Amino acid sequence: MKRFLVRNTPGFVFLTPWLIGFFCLALGPILASLFLSFTHYDMVADPRWIGLDNYLYMFGRDRRFWKALGVTFSFVALAVPARLIMALAVAMLLDKGLRTISFYRAIFYLPSLLGASIAIAILWRQLFLADGVVNKVLALVGFEGPAWISDPHTALYTLVVLAVWQFGAPMLIFLAGLRGIPRDLYEAAEIDGTPKWRQFTRITLPLLAPVIFFNLVLQTIDAFKVFSPAFIISNGTGAPSDSLLVYTVFLFNEAFKFFRMGYASALAWVLLVIIAFFTALAFLSSKYWVHYENERD
After folding, report:
1. Which residues are within 8 A (CB) of 217 and not within 5 positions of it... i.e. 6 or more apart?
2. What is the pTM of this model?
3. Does any domain span residue 105?
4. Which of 3, 89, 190, 290 has its CB surrounded by the most CB atoms within 10 Å?
5. Strands, E, within 66-216: which ranges?
6. How much of the chain exceeds pLDDT 90, in percent?
7. What is the domain-level CATH number for residue 245?
């Protein structure tokens, strides 16, 4: 035990600020929300214990809960793969050794810094209005675009496009991973006459698997927590016809619009379990497709 502590002392020292913040600032609210999830609490009267009633109502009678869950799953299924594919494609282009790579890297990363802001969400809503910029551009080439934001069939896709536009963070991680792949592997493949697509499937993807896994987990968690764009674009209601009612918007309305804090706490814990489940699923599946250089048969 003493040897373990001596060996890991630097790690514990660097973890100390996070541990202090977690135990002093985060742990209390987390435990409080767990308690409130079993109560009826409206921020006026004291919490009243109701046991599992919040969860029974959620899974048995609340249709909007299932609607929000469906919208969120649809968003995650569309946005995460599209963002990762876009990020990897741009990273591979930047990996060609451009002379101004620092400039392009900064430009492509900029949307990730701005995408979560209220101003960008408002701008995005204006772009996709019936008379917005997108439809005006389409009209120039002879196409009549739909009312993207007002149409329940297309509203979610505007949110997905915004998510894909924010590919900067995973792109930088992919770029770092690509830089770590030995160049001599590609040179040997080219000498053997291996086509580019086979080099991608046999060299790039297998050696980039740990980075893909890392990005997949982070982007999935991030997608489940999407809030600001959906809230702003739908004016905080999930409209039209609840097509933008992602889980966090539904949770926010239950807590701060209807003041059902106990029910909102239960919703938060269900979201935590869902995210934990998909994260665990990713880790369990990783042993079949993620391989590291230091692994030995």
Report:
1. 279, 282, 283
2. 0.90
3. yes
4. 290
5. none
6. 59
7. 1.10.3720.10
